[in-house]
Amino acid sequence: MSTAQIITCRAAVAWGAGEPLLMEEVEVSPPQPMEIRIKVVSTSLCRSDLSAWESHAIFPRIFGHEASGIVESVGLEVTEFKEGDHVLTVFIGECMACGHCKSGKTNTCQVLGLERRGLMHSDQKTRFSIKGKPVYHYCAVSSFSEYTVVHSGCAVKVSPFAPLEKICLLSCGVAAGLGAVWNVADVSKGSTVVIFGLGTVGLSVAQAAKLRGASRIIGVDNNPQKSEYAKAFGVTEVVDPNSYKEPIAQVIKRITDGGADFSFECVGDTDMITTALQSCCDGWGLTVTLGVPKVKPEMSAHYGLFLSGRTLKGSLFGGWKPKSDLPSLVEKYVKKEIQIDDYITHNLPFDDINKAFNLMKEGKCLRCVIHMPR
């Protein structure tokens, strides 16, 4: 039986779209059945946090979802975790019992899929409050708080020997890019890959494509600072769309003699999805979209692109089933088979969280890791 009590701690609360986060004293309820409460150790800022902060209407809210921590307490019926376990949080869960989880065909759990209303999966309530008034969750995690409560299906137990301040990146961005290449696209050796957007996700695509043996990895980005990082992750050449008078899809088709074998949209721009499709070759060209659009969620493309043999696939968290697959990714990092450290361009204390938002808005970082007080 759980004996956990309400905890009062600090959290970075968003009170309105685009407004600076404020450090507030929040009450964090005990974990309910099938939930765990986590002491957050490290959390990194993902672009989807930024996009949601700029555009969502649900406030007050605690953002953050890419995080690592230590289990502080467990609710009733939780058998998988105990106090002291090291965990990664995940924005899509794995109940391991629904039809989707059992199918082997998808990682979108029917019970613990994307949560958009800022409430817990189990009872549609929040676990945060300020002076009795609710504060809403984000992506079933809300890691911009010293303590958070998640459904036990939205956490993954990891080795206590893996550095929590590094592997937090595997709970979203880096894992998403690796999986898009290995699981969703199944990139082949010797192929040509084009990546639209050289942020953390795009550069994770590059790393995975390099490990698969792609012969040519073309990065498309108009931020010169991003291109500086690119070659360290396997990008063989960077194309700046602003340097050409012709549409970038035509540039890609010209320099690849007909189009890339695989293209990845990592920006979150639906117009860019069409561009990525146009950049693929006829017959077998495959486009994978990973980005989350902030505006204009609808896309359009000429049907002829598909009649000619191109394919468009969506990728959510790289196709990984979090509980089943993330521990092996952590192990790959520990064995130095994949890299994470170089994505971390800034390490910041929790009090400087607004600096992390500004750095990402200005395009001056890949990942800012925010460290909670010990």
From TrEMBL:
Quote the catalytic activity from the record.
Answer: a primary alcohol + NAD(+) = an aldehyde + NADH + H(+); a secondary alcohol + NAD(+) = a ketone + NADH + H(+)
**EC number(s) per entry:** 1.1.1.1
Q: Which GO terms describe its molecular function?
A: alcohol dehydrogenase (NAD+) activity; S-(hydroxymethyl)glutathione dehydrogenase [NAD(P)+] activity; zinc ion binding
Q: Where is the Alcohol dehydrogenase-like C-terminal domain?
A: 201-331
Domain Alcohol dehydrogenase-like N-terminal, residue spans: 33-158
How would you classify this enzyme at the top EC level?
A: oxidoreductase
Pfam families with a match to the protein in the record:
ADH_N, ADH_zinc_N
Q: Which UniProt keywords apply?
A: Metal-binding, NAD, Oxidoreductase, Zinc
For whether the record's keyword set contains Secreted, the answer is: no
Sorted alphabetically, which CDD domains does this protein's record hold?
alcohol_DH_plants
What are the required cofactors?
Answer: Zn(2+)
Q: Which family does it belong to?
A: Belongs to the zinc-containing alcohol dehydrogenase family. Class-III subfamily.
Name listed for the protein in its UniProt record: alcohol dehydrogenase
Species this protein is from: Psophocarpus tetragonolobus
